[in-house]
Amino acid sequence: MPENFKDRISTYQARVDACLDQALPPASQLPTRLHEAMRYAVFNGGKRVRPLLVYAAGECLGVDPNLLDAPAVAIELIHAFSLVHDDLPAMDDDDLRRGKPTVHIKYDEATAILAADALQPLAFSVLANIEGASANGKNALVKLVADACGSIGMTGGQSIDLAAEGQTLTAEELEHMYSLKTGALIHAAIVSPCLFREDDDDSVTATLDAFGHAVGIAFQIKDDILDVEGETHVIGKPSGSDEKLGKATYPGQFGIEASRARCDELLQSALADLGPFGQSAAPLEWLARYIVERGQ
Question: What string of H, E and C letters represents the secondary structure of the chain?
Fold first, then answer.
């Protein structure tokens, strides 16, 4: 096995793509337009950062990758569902996602809503059918992902985000919103392998919990920076869209330099959290640096 996690990324990306292909209904199956839209939403050039975090945390803990395929797939399906909804006219009204027409532009608004609605329950179907996992383990995974995408997680964060348009938030309020809107699903990806461990050392879960919290907030701050500084052909969507919508963002309220400094502070905190794991945490360290340093 190559020492650098970067050398294993393409293997893991191909692995989760194959699992996603198997989980999704074929485009030829009725209703064909809906299934085509679901596949379009999932296979549109994403880097699979959340599944990579699942596999990296699994490496750190020595968990069998065969057990990690289901949470990796489920969390990516939830992520894809959220992006379809985020892009809708009632939300961010975006025409591009990863350099391609968004689902409601490629198909139509009703089909996009239905495709997203179908991706979410499919994720839980995948979790309910993990081979080799105990009933308690499956139940814990379902709860972890449900909490991450519900009103106390991603959906709640999106609600706060919409309500905050045109408003001024404190740094604490912004980071709370980020921890839900973006961080909750990232946190779930990082913590999910803990549910397959044979020992019951709560300190391991607590350590990855803290790491996931810091990385999740840093991820969104970095996204906000890229929205200001990135070019459309690089970030895959129109730059400056946050400012046009009056979004409450870290760069918009505290400036680019303060945003970069906070990102770096969160990265250092996250890396410090990994200290007890030693060299086995190298994959998570690599991904944390990638999340904060991407686009530079």
Answer: CCCCHHHHHHHHHHHHHHHHHHHCCCCCCCCHHHHHHHHHHHCCCCCCHHHHHHHHHHHHHCCCHHHHHHHHHHHHHHHHHHHHHHCCCCCCCCCEECCEECHHHHCCHHHHHHHHHHHHHHHHHHHHCCCCCCHHHHHHHHHHHHHHHCCCCHHHHHHHHHHCCCCCCCHHHHHHHHHHHCHHHHHHHHHHHHHHCCCCCHHHHHHHHHHHHHHHHHHHHHHHHHHHHCCHHHHCCCCCHHHHCCCCCHHHHHCHHHHHHHHHHHHHHHHHHCHHHHHHHHHHHHHHHHHHHCCC
